Amino acid sequence: MANAPASPSVKDPAVNAGAANTRGDTAAIASRARWGILAMLFLATTINYADRATISIAGPDIAKALGLSPVEMGYIFSAFAWSYVLAQIPGGWLLDKFGSRLTYFCSIFLWSTFTLLQGFVGFVTGGAAFILLIALRLLVGAAEAPAFPGNSRITSAWFPTHERGLAASIFNAAQYFATVAFAPLMGWIVHSYGWQSIFFFMGALGIFLALVWLKTIYSPKEHPRINAAELRYLEEGGALVDLDRSQQKNKCVNTLACIKELLSSRMLLGVYIGQYCINSLTYFFLTWFPIYLVQERGMTILQAGFVASLPAIAGFLGGITGGWLSDRLTKKGYSLTFARKLPIVVGMLMSTTMIACNYVETDTLVIAIMSLAYFGKGVGALGWAVVADTSPKEAGGLSGGLFNTFGNTAGIVTPIVIGYIVQSTGSFAGALAYVGAHALVAIVSYLCVVGEIKRITLTKSLCTPLAT
User: Fold this and answer.
1) For 387-400, what is each residue's pLDDT tens digit?
2) Do 61 and 190 meet the contact criterion of CB atoms below 8 Å apart?
3) Using CA atoms, how far apart are residues 289 and 65, in angstroms rounded to an integer?
4) Using CA atoms, how far apart are residues 136 and 79, in angstroms rounded to an integer?
5) Cβ neighbours of residue 135 closer than 8 Å, sequence gap 6 or more
6) 97, 202, 325, 442 - which has most CB atoms within 10 Å?
7) CA 320/CA 332 separation, integer angstroms
8) Is the pLDDT of residue 464 over 60?
9) How far is the CA of 206 from the CAs of 140, 172, 175, 197, in angstroms?
């Protein structure tokens, strides 16, 4: 983590004279089209995580209605992650093959449709309902696979290096905002209209979002509202503005060879381990946290829906803080390695405080500790910025998919392990210790394994250039 002077950052041309617009007119001030793109990524990721969280908000009522045990609920919670993990590399390949705009649109439309269909499980009983619910969660997971690699890929194209930490933290912070915005609403919907209703509501909202996506997302050189000054600013700052353009199609990548080459990097392996640990915290909050509040703390599901939003607010603020701090350090002349690692280490140290909830009785204090832990988790959640910094330009989607494969394996393991811990002990004490320990492992991985953070250059997996 030693600091070293970085190359001078390019000043934002929004305050300087521009140049001729690529479409023939002139512009004295650079456009800010990249921030509109980021806003859409934030919105899409918010809906993405809200759809993931529907099952946890509806979980207590689903378990009661279908007569499911904690272990069975653990398998339902983890079903999403099984297919999500398995579909990451195919999803990344689709992004590299067909581009971010079209692939992401199909992803939003499909995951929203499968979310909506979960509401119909309420009309089925017994084992058939259990199997159908798992099947639909598997389909949601597979459909969502291209989303986060797509976020990273779009960020690489639209943001210079010294803004990329903030950009990645903003779309990543949407996972917390989703809880803030939707947990109280979904808790109220379940309380008022039954658990099936939130699946109908969220599914319809996502389908509408997919249509909006097609009207707002473009590559930098094809966006109707970008001007030459902003485009030059992106190029000079290290943005991969040609990532989705036809000029990039003259290079192809041998998928299996590329995966082997990426896995041979000690730096990336350390990042993958760190992301697995960080996502263990994420999946606890996404799946078991509302049930922890209901079963361990005696809250109603309506109360849990509102209370769960408080740590999420802290996580959102932490996410923005971590990205801002990382970019600030870069602009001050610290190395990219130091600027990315410092927030991760400090954030994970704060996340370990969640174990203290086992030793306090006051609900208010429990929520305060959980909020601190989630704030720290947000500060340290810079993995996607690191992916944008390190992915080879020919295989950004594949690299992001591999990263997300490792990270979201935690979504398979964590809900099931917690289910067994709760069922065998009748308490969440062991579960909190299990999750908190992952924050310590993440620190060790970034400090002792990752080393210098830099972009990977493929040397063994590029195919012969395609004929044009």
Assistant:
1) 888 888 777 777 88
2) yes
3) 20
4) 9
5) none
6) 442
7) 18
8) no
9) 12, 18, 15, 14
